Amino acid sequence: MKTQTKRMAKIGLCIGIALMLLSMVVASAVQTSGGRVSVKSLSLETDAGYVMTAYLFVPDTATAENPAPGIVTSHGYLNNKEMQDANFVELSRRGFVVLAIDQPCHGNSEVLSVNSASGVYQGALALSRMPFVDVSRIGITGHSMGGMSTNAAVASDNASGAPFISAVLLNNADPTYQDADGNFANIYGSRDVGVVSAQYDEFFHQWTDDEGNRHEAPDYLEWENAQSFLNFGADPADGLEQREADTIYTDTVDGEECIRVIYRPHIIHPWSHFSYQATVGVVDFFSRTLDAPNPIPATNQVWQWKEAFNFVGVIGLCIFVINFIILLTKTPVFADVGSAEPVAPAKVADGKGKIWFWGSLAAGALFSMLIYRRILAFGTSLPVSQTESMGLGLWSFLCGLFSILSMLVYYYTYGKKHGMDLAARGVKIPLKKLLKTILLAVIVVVVAYSCVFFAEYFFKVDFRLWTLAIKTFNPDMLGQAVLYGGLFMTFYVASSVSANAFNYNEIGGKHSWVNAIVVALFTTLPALILPWIQYIHYFTTDLMLWPASNMHILWLFPIVLILFGTTLISRAVYKATNNPYLAGIVNGCIITLMTVTNTCTTLV
Question: Which of 65, 330, 445, 479 is the right S-S partner for 589, CB 3.0 to 4.6 Å?
């Protein structure tokens, strides 16, 4: 049996490596348009005095003799440049030079004392100095906070004395509707300006009418601000024509013809990163306003292939981690960390055992769900370098403590009396074995992230799906990981012990995978139910149920996959090693690194 386990682990390891390599090759081929676009990692010393990192996409048709239009793309708050892959893939394959930036305090850009809004303008300045970019055709676009940075770039461009930005697209962000005196105005001048406005945006396009009624994004086109924008800054009190979405409106400003348009994809705010409809709007706008060197219909999109194979990389990395752990436990150095034989599911003594099983799973899910919004509100209000990491970390920590308490209550009130042996199930562990477990886990995490750095260095890709991302990081992020790691580690270690040493049993039938799925689903339930409640209410009433928790609810989207996936990973490792701590530590380390490298960091 030991030989068979080792042989299967070797096969699994090879499959994981093959999937990661396939992911890198295909994702790179898509984002380089089959080699017709070069991709470079840049570290820019900005005019504002900070270092900003970016990806630069240069089509082979863009040369000093034949300069191409250039576009700056920006992510939103708590994201990074890779989140703009739909835009930089589709725009670069149409011949645009694209600079995808990491905003200050995000990605690998320099950490500042405050979250600066100057990133888009600094990116536009950098583009304007590149010899293969046509400075008369420079566009800017940003999602959410990136849209706010785009507005700031327009203000800086206006104040520069030599404006050069000609096209502006705000992606799920409000335009600037009024001047400094509060009067409706066209602050964009003769620039072409558009808005990608998600019909169910959670953060923008909101107002309160004269009767005190709250309106949110579904009513955006009825708002006088939106109508003023589509009418080039005219005052709605002057009896404007009611203008519509997805319609190009033109006017002559300062002797130049320019356009205004609002695209209305039927999506929510973060889905714009991952939306065919939103990408149609981006491509249509810049193809119209900057004259695409390689015209391709906006409906012709290939970025989805990159996203799909980015996710293949995630799957490959998970398979690699599981089998790498198992193989290390079969080496002489770490043989005592694992088990010679696979672990069989525990027998359930009686009906009370089943009640404990289902009751403890339900209680954990309910506790996690009930505290989430309050804990996140508290954690994100603290004066720390990463408010998201603190909020999610505190929630994880409390859920981990609840899980530990549940296990103690179960053991002393039921398990011990019915023959539960903590040593046999791997819960009671000698200190030497624990220390070697920690060492093995660290080795696994280092090797796993070496694969991520390999992907970025050679292919300029990482492993991700929408808002779930495993990416490279600067060394200073290790300090952040140490700062918040204990909070996440408490949960993922406790979760692994609970899911395996306590809940790996015969409930679910003869197929042990049924039990694993049940445990994983209950672990994931809070991250599923809270968004369901929020968005069912929003889609049926056009109002958010918990507007103060909008951001915190969105953070649960990647956590659905994280909680489900880490539970299955811990089960696979436990069955082969009888060590519930090993996968828990690995999961805790990787999730901590994922969290601290995909958020905003400020100096405190």
Answer: 445
Residue at token pair 């996409």: 57
What pLDDT was estimated at residue 237? 84
Return the biggest CA–CA distance within the chain. Answer: 88
10 Å CB burial of residue 357 (0-12, 13-18, 19+) is: buried
What is the spatial distance between Cα 498 and Cα 515, in angstroms, rounded to a whole number? 13
Average pLDDT, the chain: 96
CA distance 595 to 599: 7
Q: Phi and psi (nearest 5°) for 98?
A: -125, 130
Q: Is 249 helix (H, G, I), strand (E, B) or coil?
A: strand
Residue 335: count of CB within 10 angstroms of its CB = 13
Helix segments in 274-417, DSSP class H: 276-290, 303-328, 351-379, 387-410
Question: Which amino acid does the sequence have at 236?
Answer: P
CA distance 65 to 188: 30
CB 157 within 8 A of CB 163: yes
pLDDT tens-digit map of 516-551: 999 999 999 999 999 999 999 999 999 999 999 999
Cα 272 from Cα 521, distance rounded (Å): 27
Average pLDDT score over residue span 19-23: 98
Cβ atoms of residues 485 and 588 within 8 Å: yes
Interatomic CA distance for residues 143 and 466, integer angstroms: 14
Q: Are 242 and 253 in contact (CB under 8 A)?
A: no
92, 57 Cβ separation under 8 angstroms: yes
Alpha-carbon radius of gyration of the chain: 26
Residue that the structure tokens 């320099």 belong to: 110
User: Distance between CA 222 and CA 230 in Å, rounded?
Assistant: 12
